[in-house]
Amino acid sequence: MGTDITLQNVWFHYYPNTQAKENWAVKDVSLTFSQGEYISIIGSNGSGKSSLACLLNGLFIPSEGKLFINGTAIDSDQDRWEMKRRVGMIFQNPDNQIVAPSVLDDIAFGMENLGVTREDMQIRIQQVLQQVGLTGFEKKEPHHLSGGQKQRLAIAGILAMQPDVILFDESTSMLDPDGRNSILQLMSELHDVGITVIHITHQASEAFRADRIIVLHQGSVMLDLPKKSLYANAAQLDQWGLDVPLSIQLHQALRKKGWQVSDKVESEEQLVSELWTLM
Amino acid sequence: MSRIVIGQFMPGNSILHRFDPRAKLLFVFLFFFLIFFVNNISTYLVIYLFVFFCIGLSQIRIRLFLGSIKPVLFIIIFTSILHLVMTKGGTILLTTPFFTVYEEGVRQAAFISSRFLILVVMASLLTFTTSSLDLTDALEQLMGPLRKIRVPVHELALMMSIALRFIPTLWEETEKIKNAQLARGANLESGNIFKRLTAYIPIFIPLFLSSFRRAEELAMAMEARAYRGGIGRTKFRLLEYKRKDYMLIVIFLLLVIGIGWLRS
Fold first, then answer.
1. By the CB < 8 Å criterion, does B211 face chain A?
2. How far apart (Å, rounded) are the C-alpha atoms in residues A150 and A4?
3. Residue A180 in 3-state DSSP?
């Protein structure tokens, strides 16, 4: 079981015939996402990261190139429909992805589409409410929830469909700090239970929670690295319009000034212990 | 928002709240037909007793029903006056230089306004004791057979349910835009009606634009959750007829027999 997604030389544009190929939203992207990974995709506005997300969920169809799930090419509408069960997607605006007038009904919406029986729905609803920490909110109306709670409701609705992969398309960008932290925390928990988490963001500091980081710029993949090698490469981030996390800026600045800081630093904790030894 | 009384659900746990929404909807629908067979004092007495009995059962304050009558009060008074002045027959009760009031006119005026009142009160009873979500479900199921003649019943019901979900959201947004425009010096309070209406244009245009954007995003989110219309869909909400719902049939038949027997 599980879902491995492979993109093979994928190109995409909404209206492929109207634009020269160098202006397309996604350009010649080849990537593999294996079951259980925690991946961040970062890029500035217009880097094609949202288009990529919609390709991974079957909402968009590659204009050129192929998409495989577990080695099988996704061609038909039926394939793409089944893909949506495997790959759930959480959007940016918490308000505009809640369909039903109550928490219970909204969680049920996705399962209804899949044709899950009513008995199963009852069981799954209790499970996912607990998982996202919304037990006791069953009868609440969406407009009585905070932004973070709405986003957790959206996650519950996706989890009830029992996906292998969950895509977060800038899902934290409209939340207050508390809501944001609770969603980031939930992402780690989902990763711990074996779900592939793909977090699309333009905030490098959030991206650093993942194990693997992909940098997109103007529709192409610039970097695709495990987190520990990113530390050495992070200085390049600002050339693609991304902010470099403070700890990395500090690391680079210290080295430039001639301090004896190792260049093998892989995380913030390591940098801190390096600095201790200097004191 | 609190001023709108018609169609508002009053949460509660009375026997009227617990009837199946389909049973209630059908009952009220048929009751509306029955009203037109009511034509003398004794039958109106039966219906009035029945309506008051229902109001009592609903455990909802009378004041709220008066609130829902208010918007139609003008129509009731207007038609009553017309009937008083225009209807001829029976003994003359009052003569003025302009018009004459006959006994028959008073009777007609009382009956017609009673009919209006009862219609409004019964409709309010239905919406007061049934959540709009239940009503949507009931409509979807009762209209189910229309699917055969290609009426998009599922889509209509979903549209209604989405509309219900977004009313509070759009309401909040309207307030926000209104405040934003007031902060920019918009004048919404003064001037004649025409001026005040045009002053609302800068509120409605942003609201429309954002509604369209919302609709588009919602459609994407629905598709991402594997929505593809009614095919192969199961339903989470379940409506079940219970024994008390069948009682409504008996009650209705008793009303029909009673009115059939007493009417002239």
1. no
2. 29
3. helix
| Torsion angle in degrees (nearest 10) through CA of A114, A119, A123, A129 | 60
The domain locations on chain B are: 15-130+241-262, 154-224
Q: Under an 8 A CB cutoff, do B226 and A81 touch?
A: yes
Distance CA A100, CA A108 (A): 9
Residue B93: strand, helix, or coil: strand
Residue of chain A nearest B225, judged by CA positions? A110
Q: Are the CB atoms for A206 and A172 separated by under 8 Å? A: yes
CA distance A276 to chain B (A): 49
Task: Answer whether B232 touches A (CB < 8 Å).
Answer: yes
Portion of chain B with pLDDT greater than 90, in percent: 23
CATH of domain A5-244: 3.40.50.300
Q: Helices A103-114 and A147-159, interaxial angle, to 10°?
A: 30
Q: Which of B133, B136, B140, B165 is the best substitution to test chain A (most A C-beta atoms within 10 A)?
A: B165
DSSP one-letter string for B61-120: -HHHHHHHHHHHHHHHHHHHHHHHHH---S-EEEE-SS-EEEHHHHHHHHHHHHHHHHHH
* Whole-complex ipTM: 0.86
Instruction: Give pLDDT tens digits for B137-157.
Output: 888 888 888 888 888 888 888
By DSSP bridging, strand B92-95 and strand A38-42 are unpaired
Q: Which residue of B has its CA nearest to A55?
A: B224
Write out the H or E segment, with its range, that includes residue A223.
Answer: strand A220-226
Mutant choice from A78, A91, A95 vs B, greatest count of B C-beta within 10 A: A95
Q: Give the pLDDT score at A189.
A: 92
C-alpha to C-alpha distance for B37 and B32, rounded to whole angstroms? 10
Residue where the block lists tokens 């919404």? B188
**Residue spans in chain A of domains classed CATH 3.40.50.300:** 5-244
Measured in whole angstroms, how far is the alpha carbon of residue A161 from the centre of its chain? 17
- Positive/negative CA dihedral, B110, B116, B119, B124: negative
Tokens, residue A160: 């009830």
pLDDT of residue A1: 66
Which residues on B lie below 8 Å from A174 (Cβ)?
none
Burial class (CB in 10 A: 0-12, 13-18, 19+), B130: buried
Mark yes or no for CB contact A88/B236 under 8 Å: no
Residue located via tokens 């397309």:
A24
